[in-house]
Structure formats: structure tokens, C-alpha cells
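TL;DR need C-alpha cells for one chain.
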Amino acid sequence: MRVKKIRGLKRKKKKLMERIVQHTEEFPDHFINNHWNAALPASQCFISSPKTPFKVKKECIETMIKRVEHLISIKPHSNEELRVVAAIDLPAMWNSQMIVFQGSTYFNCFFDRDSED
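>> reply
TL;DR here they are.
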């Protein structure tokens, strides 16, 4: 059976890349619970669809990594330890996000999923 193409693929891809860049223009200064995150600004049905070409998903991942590198390069030199991370979830790309942590203790606790929280 033939798989239908996604309508407006170029437009959707272009807007997705623009939104990723917009979220990371400046280094975040507002932290909630010792972290800041920017979820992937795409609809779940678009980015997780089997109809979405792997090339688009690959470009999205590459853009997220480049923007994390950008955030690292503009990170303020203060007395607190800031960690910038790209959490990419495959195959459920919609769960991917860019995270900035304040301090290594919260960074280490964030990935511990055996706690009550």
C-alpha cells in the first residue's frame, strides 16, 4: 500500500527549525525548580508520524544539538555551575527537549527515576 505524503512538509520543517532557534536566541535567566527546559516545538502527530521522513527528524536532532552548542557558547560566567543538555528521545521524538540545569546536584538527581517524585 502506498504511504501518502505529508502536506506542507517543507513549510512545517522550516517553521519547526525557526521555532527551535527562537527558543534559544538568548541564554535563559528564569529557572523553575533549578532548571529551564524547551520542549520540541512540534506537534506530536507531525514529528512522531511514520510518514515524516527520517531526513526531517535527523535535521531536527542536528538543529537541537547545534542550539545546545550555541547556549553553551553564550553561557554566562558566574559562580554557579550551569549544565546545558539535549535530551533526545528516540523513537518518541516528541519527548525531546533542551534543558539547562543550575548545579550538578540537581543534574544528577534529575536522571534518577527511582525516586518517589
